[in-house]
Amino acid sequence: MLAQAPVQINKLAEPIAGVEAFSSKVVGGIKPADLEILQINLGYMCNMTCEHCHVDAGPDRKEIMEREVLEACLKAIDASNVKMVDLTGGAPEMNPHFKWFVEELTKRNVQTIVRSNLTILVSNKKYKEYPNFFKENKVTVIASLPCYTKGNVDKQRGDGAFNKSIEALLVLNKLGYGKEGTGLELNLVYNPGGPGLPPPQAALEQDYKRELKENFNLEFNNLYTITNLPISRFLDYLLVAGRYEEYMLKLHEAYNPATVNGVMCTNTLSVDWEGNLYDCDFNQMLRLKVVSSVGNIKEFDLAELSKRKVVLGNHCYGCTAGAGSSCQGALN
To answer: Does the residue 325 lie in any domain?
Structure first.
């Protein structure tokens, strides 16, 4: 992915008939509001290689955030009003400093989110201990489950992914996750299986809850629908399938200006494994750093960062199409 990013940026910047530059849609650009969420990518290593992954994560990736960078993240949290820390990867659980860092966040009484692929939690003895660790630290679990059927999940995420995901969800449910009144939040994420927009989030959530309850006696709190952005493996898929221009035109035609004020870059700062700063996770994957004199978490200066404008590109149509899309699901 690191080698591909400049190529992908150039591809996204190429003119497409009927698609105007996203920056022309937002007069004056987007200026961040108060920083509420620090999204930290703990590394691109993962036990899976999902076809829709915008991180291009996998077992062969070696990028892992070191403790020195994590300590700088803690200093930034202490120096700001960050209310939530969103831990991503790859598989964030694979970072060797993961448990220490979560415990430090617990001491600071910030809400901690772990974005888990679920299968990691049942993969070996070490990670099987993590659900209990999550419960002890009241971690919110956001888990990828792109469908409630085996065929669709295995197609996107690999053979056996669905059964392992269900196994992990049952473990989390047994601990109280997803159950009313426990305070242990379990949210699922849906991604479309191809070049289309997600269906209405509320209706799809009811379908998920019905099917998972009836077939597996599973419960969860919320479903988040997230649009696939034309980045990394999904962009490769679109190009191979000859559907890139079609998809970009679809996103452009579905542009919804009402979503702009709610996109994740307005209240979130993204940190990569080396500590570099980005307006969002998608910009991180394209290596589009923040436009600021503060470029790394080790130099964190909230006042200076608040002066910046968000770096925009045509991939931003993915977050502003239809009902909108963010790391917390649909926007309206």
So the answer is: no
Count structural domains, the chain: 1
Integer Cα distance of 332 and 324 in angstroms: 7
CATH classification at residue 306? 3.20.20.70
Token duo for residue 272:
């990569």
Q: Using only the alpha carbons of the chain, give its radius of gyration.
A: 19
Q: d(Cα 271, Cα 277) in Å, to the nearest integer?
A: 5
Range of the domain at 269: 5-320
Predicted confidence (pLDDT) per residue in 79-121, tens digit: 998 999 999 998 999 999 999 999 999 999 999 999 999 999 9
| DSSP-derived pairing of the beta strands 268-271 and 140-144 | unpaired
* Tokens representing residue 156 in the block: 């996107």
What is the sign of the dihedral through the CA atoms of 87, 121, 328 and 18? positive
Conformational region of residue 262, where left means phi above 0, alpha means psi within -120 to 50, and beta covers everything else: alpha
Residue 192 lies in a domain: yes
Q: Is 303 helix (H, G, I), strand (E, B) or coil?
A: helix
Closest CA to 144 of 47, 288, 240, 63: 47
User: Within a domain: residue 329?
Assistant: no
DSSP state, residue 96: T
Separation between Cα atoms, residue 41 and residue 35, nearest integer Å: 17
Residue 327 counted as domain residue: no
- Give the range among 6-10, 50-54, 191-195 with minimum mean pLDDT: 50-54
